[in-house]
């Protein structure tokens, strides 16, 4: 085939992706030094010669100008033995622990190296790990001493079965029972006694290793990455001896295969992929995802599989095109749901309004999971995939009919709004919260309302009791069981989001602005009165003390009145948030509002809320607004007890359960 007709890297990787998609786990990966050197980890050969130089320096031998052969010859002449890792380490480190520490410097990053992003898993390692997570690959043989592959696997939440050297191969369980197997064929630096690198060490494998390799090469296809084949005669012989051509081998090499590698590739009938490991394996993973998602599109996704897939795709360095397509496909599916289509006619379907609500809640779950995961782990690019979809669901019907039915599209918008908002809050992405809060949603007749006003759970669930608690309970399952953010993180993120949404929904009208200005002034007068009272306490004049005390009492009462007046503008409608019961004042305060107030007091205008311009208040004004929100929360709690004594058994209670 001429060079002009040679298939591209993408085409070759697509061919392999078809095999992985139709026969998951059918290929074993062989990793050579080429896949790790790109990370900054030195080759085993380079480490060996550096150790010889260290021994030479200890013996005051200047090896400047020595080539590899000269260093090896010096060691043989000096010690009368082959320069194996075992012998080198005996001269440099007397104990097993000391040997591990010596080797650690070559294979593990320092703080500076970690900051420079060196000696960590490469894009190739991570692409393999993601395919292991997807079930496409189960067996990896590495010829490298480093732990980059297991690090990449653990980043994906995978705990592989690890074989640290040939002495452990006899303990490998039946391959069909192993989810992810990683074999260090030539050893692992954390087990120095297993390390093989010299010609002598690599000229013979244990009988158990030979038998194991026969099983691999008989039963699996091969994906070879970054291996020259030059120094591994036993491995080459094993491939020539037992390899069956059930699956076409693929050999990734950015340069031109030469010598033993070229001969072996020809003998095996390998497809040569002339590309870097990062590029080839990235293309392979993208192709595999595209094929898998195409197959999955024929069957309904579950929330668990949708979220797991989104998390894997967002973890990579490549654009998660498959996730984009899945979001769009699920949005279209939801848009065509029978009850949502029916709602635009204003006529209730089976089970009336309540039945439609329950069916739409269930229909929203997959898209909610995708939106929440992308809001939590995504970036500005992926945000656009779902922000537009939420806005699209917000376009209201123009027909007449039952209002509650006509507004059901807002139930869909609201659930996606909360899923995205809580995900963004949990990950501290206040900029994307600003985009959500600035949305306008249509009501019946085409009138637009701010999303923070219209999407209050109370308006989304007309006729339902405890609407906020209902949505909280359903989203809790998504965030705690599927996104695995933790119960505490979900609860605090939910409450913080509710508080910020409520504050953003405070109407910006002249009377509210005047009320806030009065509140601001009352706070300033109270602080001034408190300062004068402290001065009076230091004096012995009783009249001055009494006047200062009366002034402070009056300023506190005035501040309370002004807080109450502004609290009239806070649209708090029995949300599911916690309140703290102050036994001294017998008043409730919203826990999330108190936490935010404390943060703002410390950080001021440097707080992310202000940096992102999320809420339309300066720092000191926002603290006043948070205090007024607590006043509104107290009123709700007090009214829940019909004006009786407040709960004192617990300092923290849920407001809608107080």
Write a structural description.
The protein is α/β, with parallel strands linked by helices. The protein folds into four domains: 189 residues, TPP-binding domain (Rossmann fold, 3-Layer(aba) Sandwich); 71 residues, no CATH class; 200 residues, no CATH class; 82 residues, no CATH class. 58% of the residues lie in helices and 7% in strands. The strands form three sheets. A seven-stranded parallel beta sheet has the order 3-4-2-1-5-6-7, sandwiched between helices. The chain has a three-stranded antiparallel beta sheet with strand order 11-10-12. Helix 1 packs across helix 13, helix 26 runs antiparallel to helix 27 and helix 26 crosses helix 30. About 1% of the residues have low confidence.
Ordered list of secondary-structure elements with their pairings:
Elements: H1 9-22, E1 27-31, H2 34-37, H3 44-58, H4 68-79, H5 85-92, H6 96-107, H7 111-115, H8 123-133, E2 139-142, H9 148-155, E3 161-163, E4 181-184, H10 207-219, E5 221-225, H11 233-242, E6 250-252, H12 259-268, E7 271-273, H13 277-296, H14 303-314, H15 321-335, H16 338-343, H17 352-377, H18 380-393, H19 403-406, H20 408-426, H21 430-437, E8 440-442, E9 448-450, H22 451-454, H23 457-460, H24 467-482, H25 487-504, H26 510-537, H27 542-567, E10 578-582, E11 587-590, H28 591-603, H29 608-611, H30 619-640, E12 652-654
Parallel strand pairs: 1-2, 1-5, 2-4, 3-4, 5-6, 6-7
Antiparallel strand pairs: 8-9, 10-11, 10-12
Q: What is the tally of helical segments?
A: 30
Number of strands: 12
Work out the radius of gyration.
33 Å
Number of domains: 4
Strand content: 5-15%
Could you tell me the mean pLDDT?
88
Shape: flat
């Amino acid at each position: 085939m001429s060079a002009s007709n040679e298939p591209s890297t993408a085409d070759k990787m697509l061919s392999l992706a078809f095999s992985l998609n139709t026969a998951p786990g059918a290929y074993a990966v062989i990793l050579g030094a080429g896949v790790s050197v790109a990370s900054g980890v030195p080759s085993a050969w380079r480490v060996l010669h550096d150790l010889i130089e260290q021994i030479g320096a200890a013996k005051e031998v200047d090896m400047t100008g020595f080539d590899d052969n000269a260093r090896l010859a010096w060691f043989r002449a000096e010690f009368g033995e082959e320069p194996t890792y075992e012998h080198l380490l005996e001269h440099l480190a007397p104990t097993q622990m000391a040997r591990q520490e010596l080797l650690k410097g070559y294979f593990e990053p320092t703080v500076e190296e970690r900051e420079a992003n060196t000696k960590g898993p490469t894009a190739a390692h991570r692409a393999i790990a993601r395919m292991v997570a997807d079930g496409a690959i189960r067996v990896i043989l590495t010829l490298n001493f480093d732990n980059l592959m297991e690090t990449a696997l653990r980043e994906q939440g995978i705990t592989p079965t690890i074989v640290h050297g040939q002495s452990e191969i006899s303990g490998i369980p039946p391959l069909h029972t192993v989810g992810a197997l990683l074999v260090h064929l030539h050893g692992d630096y954390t087990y120095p006694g297993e390390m093989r690198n010299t010609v002598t060490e690599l000229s013979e494998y244990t009988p158990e290793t030979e038998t194991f390799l026969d099983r691999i090469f008989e039963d699996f296809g091969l994906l070879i990455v970054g291996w020259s084949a030059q120094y591994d005669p036993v491995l080459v012989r094993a491939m020539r001896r037992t390899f069956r051509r059930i699956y076409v081998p693929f050999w990734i090499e950015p340069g031109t295969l030469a010598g033993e590698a070229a001969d072996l590739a020809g003998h095996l009938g390998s497809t040569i992929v002339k590309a870097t490991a990062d590029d080839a394996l990235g293309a392979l993973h993208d192709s595999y995802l595209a094929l898998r998602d195409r197959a999955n599109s024929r069957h309904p996704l579950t929330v668990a599989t949708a979220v797991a897939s989104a998390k894997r795709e967002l973890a990579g360095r490549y654009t998660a095109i498959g996730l984009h397509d899945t979001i769009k496909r699920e949005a279209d599916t939801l848009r065509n749901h029978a009850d949502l289509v029916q709602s635009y006619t204003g006529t209730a379907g089976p089970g009336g309004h309540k039945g439609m609500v329950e069916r739409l809640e269930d229909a929203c779950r997959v898209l909610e999971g995708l939106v929440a995961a992308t809001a939590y782990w995504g970036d500005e690019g992926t945000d656009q995939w779902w922000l537009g979809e939420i806005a699209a669901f917000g376009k209201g019907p123009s027909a007449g009919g039952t209002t509650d039915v006509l507004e059901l599209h807002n139930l869909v918008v609201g659930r996606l709004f909360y899923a995205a908002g809580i995900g963004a809050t949990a990950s501290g992405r206040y900029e994307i919260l600003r985009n959500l809060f600035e949305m306008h949603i249509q009501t019946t007749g085409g009138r637009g309302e701010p999303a923070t006003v219209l999407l209050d759970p109370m308006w989304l669930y007309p006729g339902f009791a405890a609407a906020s608690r209902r949505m909280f309970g359903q989203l809790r399952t998504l965030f705690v069981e599927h996104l695995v953010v933790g119960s505490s993180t979900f609860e605090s993120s939910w409450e913080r989001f509710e508080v910020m949404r409520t504050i953003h929904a405070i109407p910006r009208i002249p009377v509210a602005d005047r009320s806030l200005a009065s509140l601001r002034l009352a706070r300033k007068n109270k602080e001034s009165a408190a300062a004068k009272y402290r001065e009076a306490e230091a004096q012995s004049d009783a009249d001055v003390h009494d006047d200062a005390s009366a002034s402070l009492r009056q300023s506190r009462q005035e501040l309370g009145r002004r807080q109450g007046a502004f609290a009239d503008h806070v649209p708090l409608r029995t949300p599911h948030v916690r309140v703290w019961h102050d036994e001294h004042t017998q008043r409730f305060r919203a826990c999330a509002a108190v936490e935010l107030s404390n943060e703002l007091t410390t950080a001021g205008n440097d707080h992310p809320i202000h940096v992102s311009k999320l809420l339309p208040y300066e720092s000191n004004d926002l603290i006043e607004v948070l205090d007024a929100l607590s006043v509104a929360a107290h009123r709700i709690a007090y009214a829940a007890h019909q004006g009786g004594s407040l709960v004192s058994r617990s300092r923290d209670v849920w407001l809608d359960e107080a």
